[in-house]
Sequence to fold (71 residues):
Amino acid sequence: PQKHKETNRKAVKDLVDYEIRYKCELTEILSKSPNISRREIMKLNGKAYRWLFNHRKEWLDEMLPKPKQHK
Fold:
């Protein structure tokens, strides 16, 4: 039971660490290039984009520009 508890704590810590890291990275990109497209963000830092898309989609959608409509 104690080992399982430690494993869960580490998993939660890793999740929080990734969240902070990727939010900071994305915020930095947006501050340097406020008119950047989602596609360009994916090219610059796909790992952060994908992680936030999978784990913090609501936050990501609030931060990013609206998706462009393709014709």
Q: What stands out?
A: The helical segments are 2-32, 38-44, 46-55, 57-63.
